[in-house]
Amino acid sequence: MEEEWAFLMRAFNDLEAEIACGLLRQDSIPVRLKESDPLTGAMRVLGGQAYEIDILVPRQMLPRAKALLAAAEKEEP
């Protein structure tokens, strides 16, 4: 049976997505990225970065992933 993935957040550029994914992976939470628009790949080639990237995690890990990102957000200066 295939693992069910759930929407965690939408990042608004590649850097934001990589920071969030790095935090999640560091805590052993697998991630999948889904570009919100089929033209995102072309925007990356032309403009250097993509916009609106959905971050998905396994459904059973969603509460843990949300808590991890919320804690990291509170730690920002």
Give a verbal description of the structure.
45% of the residues lie in helices and 22% in strands. It is of the alpha+beta class and 77 residues long. The chain has one domain (5-75): 2-Layer Sandwich (Alpha-Beta Plaits). Strands 1-3-2 form a three-stranded antiparallel β-sheet. It starts with a strand and ends with a helix. The mean pLDDT is 84.
CATH architecture: 2-Layer Sandwich
SSE order, one letter for each helix or strand: EHEHEH
Give the amount of beta strand, in percent. 15-25%
- Range of helix content: 40-55%
- CATH topology type: Alpha-Beta Plaits
Spans where pLDDT lies below 50 across 5 or more residues: none
Quickly count the helices.
Answer: 3
The pLDDT mean sits at 84
What would CATH call the class? Alpha Beta
In short:
With 77 residues, this protein is α+β, with helices and mostly antiparallel strands.
Features:
alpha+beta, 77 residues, 3 strands, Alpha-Beta Plaits
Secondary-structure blueprint of this entry?
Blueprint: E1 5-11, H1 14-26, E2 32-35, H2 40-47, E3 53-58, H3 62-75
Antiparallel strand pairs: 1-3, 2-3
